Amino acid sequence: MSDDEKRIGVFICHCGSNIAGFVDVPAVTEYVKTLPDVVFATRNLYTCADDGLTSIRESIKEHKLNRVVVAACTPRTHAPLFQGVCQEAGLNKYLFTFVNIRDQCSWVHMKEKEKATEKAKDLLRMGVARARLLQPQEEARVGVTSAAVVIGGGVAGMSAALSIADQGFPVRLVEKESELGGFVRQLSSIYQDRKDAGSVLKSIIDRVKGNPNIELFLNSEVTAAEGFVGNYDIVIDTKGKERKDKVGVIVLATGTKEYIPKGLYGYGQSPNIVTLTEFEGLVKARKLPKMSSIAFIQCVGARGQDKTYCSRICCNVSLKNAMNLAENYKNVLGLEEAGAATEAATPMEAPAEGGERRRGRRGRRGGAEGSEEETTLAGPKLEIVIFNRDIMAYGIEHELTYNKAREKRVRLVRYTPKNLPQVSVEDGKLVIDYYHETLQMQRKMSPDMIVLATPLTAQADAKDISMMLKVPVGQDGFFLEAHVKLRPVDFATDGIYVCGTCKGPADITEAVSQGIAAASRACIPLARGYVQPEALSAYVDSDVCSGCGTCIEVCPFSAIRKNEQGKAEVTIAACKGCGNCGATCPENAIFMNCYSDEQLLAEAKAALQEVKG
Q1: What is the CATH number of the domain that holds 101?
Q2: What CATH number is attached to the domain comprising 218?
Q3: Angle at 609 between CA 607 and CA 613, to 5 degrees
Q4: Residue 273 maps to a domain
């Protein structure tokens, strides 16, 4: 076989019924066999399964294939798998092409099988035309600085720092406040066992301060960061004193803040109308007033009132506090005079008839509504009511807490967006005017305290950090991961990872898990000692480049700089091969590996060819 001889193998996947249910796969396979340079074509029920991968591996050797085309689902999830099989068979992985005939064909033409089949033929003809012009590529190795910086000293950031440090790598832990702990410092207790938040924090803080691999920076911020995976130059500012440093990876764990409900539900009109976090602070400081009734109002400012999203954890935090009051009111209040209320800790009877439980979509629960006459539901002295749109008690433990709250006669009163509870202050007393969904009538309640469950929101400096690190934020202001399922703690920019509540509302357990996950991802390049970026990058013809800098301005990954000669130079480790630079270069001096103009033009011409027969 000569070096110029093209021997292309094509593997078409049924993907169960995802593709075969809407595309005539046998007909497409027979058509592909007629294309120039295709010496072998076959189909598999699942090409990504062991038998499908074995078929590719054996066919490369048996038919001496030097180009491989797989037509299946999506390259985002499966391309690395097929490239790895090609490498195992001795074929350069860049001599592989993926054709998406599921997302781009069968799924969008479910009611047009004949047209879907013709489109699949078109897509494969284009893929074969491109594969014919592929060239083998070599991946460069770039050294890595074996150190990490973790931005944020909450439970997620500390968990990430400890995990990295425990694996032997030095960590710079940067916290802008004077203490570690983040948002959890404001909490009185944690669920499920309602342990004291301070004692839990102290344990992890002591571990951080006692770890020799962790260098702690309090009252500090990372004010600059430049570079690429394995080689980041950062600046840490501590009270005006700057320190330049070099790290290999960055973990972002900047945390969250509570939404302040200005103008909503009477907030600010009475000291007894507080947010959920402020209530936690009162409990922690033992400054709760004596009271006979308390009302929690859920989704304040969330789910369309101001913020569009559900904050997830608010229902569980309200249930935790309701249970804490129901079972341990004397201790929570911090007054001996509240002794009569301790009877609330005695197990109560099952909810009376009429306390039905409404279920919403996907595990959400509507509130159980008791009769208005049941004024001693949480005990002889304390009535607890939670006004809610639905209860988001996700997970087994939260579900059990929800059930226990009902057993303790915590009232769950459901409201709808059309009939929001109205809060007012009348003659110094708090009044909640609400529509009783079960009784279909307006009712009133005069609690001694109203607790507003507001959502967690992004930090004020999230956009500034986003600009500094070149990482995205979503529409809600939280940092946006590369892929919610496939890369949940990675950013699209290699070498930068995200965890905790800066990427969305999460409870402590979730934040710790994310911190450990981000650390495990960050330790891969640190442990390896080098990064080997894909060869899907741009390269510059310096003889043609005029040094105008247009490519530098349009590069979203800051992967292009000017060299000593004033010409554009690509940093391979940072380049993602997006093509922005090549498309805007006025001198046509920038080209793309694996996506050359010749390959793209060949695909375009193949798309315009008519299918015969």
Answers
A1: 3.40.50
A2: 3.50.50.60
A3: 120
A4: no
Structural domains counted in the chain: 4
Residue 395 burial (10 A CB sphere; 0-12, 13-18, 19+): middle
3-state secondary structure 258-273: ECCCCCCCCCCCCCCE
User: Range of 554's domain?
Assistant: 538-593
What's the rounded Cα separation, in Å, for the pair 49 and 389?
45
Query: Does the CA dihedral 559-561-563-565 come out positive or negative?
Result: positive
82: its two tokens: 């097929």
Sign for the pseudo-dihedral over CA of 465, 471, 476, 481: negative
In 307-381, which residue ranges form alpha helices assigned H by DSSP? 314-333
Amino acid at 547: G
205-230 residue pLDDT tens: 999 999 999 999 999 999 999 999 99
Looking at residue 344, its pLDDT comes to: 36
Instruction: Tell which of 107, 137, 167 closes a domain.
Output: 137
pLDDT for position 471: 94
Q: What is the length of the chain?
A: 613
* End position of a domain, from candidates 388, 421, 451: 451
> Taken in order 60, 63, 64, 66, is the CA torsion positive or negative?
negative
Question: At which residue do the structure tokens 């669920």 appear?
Answer: 191
> Which portions of the chain are predicted below pLDDT 50?
336-364, 368-380
Structure letter (DSSP) for residue 530 = E
Q: Are 264 and 452 in contact, with CB atoms under 8 Å apart? A: yes
Provide the pLDDT for residue 397. 87
Rounded CA separation 141/185 (Å): 43
- Is residue 481, in this structure, part of any structural domain at all? yes
SS3 label, residue 464? helix
Pairing outcome for strands 411-414 and 383-388: parallel
Checking DSSP bridges between strand 358-359 and strand 365-366, what pairing results, if any? Answer: antiparallel
DSSP character at residue 479? B
For residue 336, give Cα distances in angstroms to 133, 286, 300, 332, 448.
Answer: 84, 12, 33, 11, 19
